[in-house]
Amino acid sequence: TLIINQWVPAAHRGDAIGDSARRVRALLREAGHQSELYALTMDEALRDDVRPFADPAATRGDLTIFHYALPSPMTDAFGRLPHGRVLQYHNVTPASFFAPYDPEMFRLAVLGRRELGTLAGRVDLALGDSEYNRRELEALGFRRTGVLPIAVDTARLTGAPRVPALEHLLDDGLVTCLFGGRIAPNKRIEDHLKLAEHYKRYVDAYYRFIFVGRYDGVPRYYAMVRALLAEY
């Protein structure tokens, strides 16, 4: 039996990284290992499920999986662990996407890439959640690399309760295109809107595009999206 801990800078319910980490924790426990998830910050609803990073037990794992997606004090602490350091890289959005909209997000993205590079040569294994991300790690100088995809709990979808009111609303014959993800520059929402305009003009006027995701992260970008909606 091993102690295999995971670190995430911020634990949010419904966030892909946090959900994946909790799914991996369940799989590790099913395999007979001890496993906990530690975070610097967490949603109130997760306080009974995720442990604070200040807990001394956070650094006592036989293996520690560090989920990297943003700069934080966890990075240096992870690099100083004596053994069993497994990095899982979830990609840092290229800063250029934020340049026209949000100087602080631009700064964080630049810092995030720079901080990731400080771990090259200080981990035992570096994993990307896609081949694209693995190649990025390799380019930064990480030697032992691999791919570990996001762990998805499909039961959340297959076992979800039916919502008759929503089914009734959507069962009106319109073609529906669904996008899931935050409204942010790297998601290229403007391309979806251009597609919607093309569809309306040349394919069928009876359609809807539904965007499900937070829209308060980059307010100036969201304002541009709203302006484009008005223009179309």
Distance between the termini: 59 Å
Give the SSE string: EHEEEHEHEHEHHEHEH
- What is the number of strand segments? 9
- Rg, Cα atoms, Å: 20 Å
Fraction of residues in H or I helices = 25-40%
Strand order of the largest sheet: 3-2-1-4-5-6-7
Low-pLDDT segments, ≥5 res:
none
Largest sheet, if any? 7 strands, parallel
What is the tally of helical segments?
Answer: 8
What overall geometry do the principal axes of the alpha carbons give? globular
Structural class given helices, strands, pairing?
alpha/beta
Average pLDDT works out at 94
Roughly what fraction of the amino acids lie in strands? 15-25%
Protein model, in words:
The chain has 232 residues and is α/β, with parallel strands linked by helices. 36% of the residues lie in helices and 20% in strands. It is built from 8 helices and 9 strands. The chain has helices at residues 16-30, 74-79, 103-117, 131-139, 155-158, 164-170, 189-202, 219-231; strands at 4-11, 37-42, 51-52, 63-68, 85-89, 125-128, 145-147, 175-180, 207-212. A 7-stranded parallel beta sheet has the order 3-2-1-4-5-6-7. A two-stranded parallel ribbon has the order 8-9. Strand 1, helix 1 and strand 2 form a beta-alpha-beta unit.
